[in-house]
Amino acid sequence: MTAFLKSHLAWGLYGLFLGSAFMLALGVGYTRRAIIEEHQSPYEFPETVQRIKNNATSLGWRTAAIEGLQANLVEAGYAEPGRIEVIALCNEHYACSMLKSGKKSSLAMMPCSIAVYERDGKVFVSAVNKGLMGRLFRTEAAGVLRHVRDDEHKILAFLHE
Question: What does CATH list as the number for 36-160?
Answer without folding.
Answer: 3.30.310.70
